[in-house]
Amino acid sequence: MAFNALVPTLEVENMDETIAFYESYLDFKCVSREENHWAFIKKDDVEIMLSSRFNKDEFPKTVFTGGLYIYVDDIDVIWQILKDKVDISYPLENFEYGMREFAIYDNNGYRIQFGQELETN
């Protein structure tokens, strides 16, 4: 039995604004959409499903306590592109566990982390 892919699904307040954020700042493309019910966005090997809100009465704000962690191949370039354009969760830093990373918040408040393995000499 194989697991073939993991595609996180994020509930969003405004589908158009969310798609515009991911396309404008992160270079994703919307590859499929059903009006304001759901959308499928993709960049390279990273895929995310966006959906309209469920249980909005019970949970008036979007809730996600974790983050989406995206491995990249040129963290410094991505940092330079994003650092003055988006809400930063934590700045670019080298961590003792061998990663160079930073995190931003998307327009819904979801944390998106970007990481690249530090080169070992």
Automatic annotation (TrEMBL):
Residues 2-117 form the VOC domain. InterPro entries: Glyas_Bleomycin-R_OHBP_Dase, Glyas_Fos-R_dOase_dom, VOC_core. SUPFAM superfamilies: Glyoxalase/Bleomycin resistance protein/Dihydroxybiphenyl dioxygenase. It comes from the Bacteria. This is Bleomycin resistance family protein.
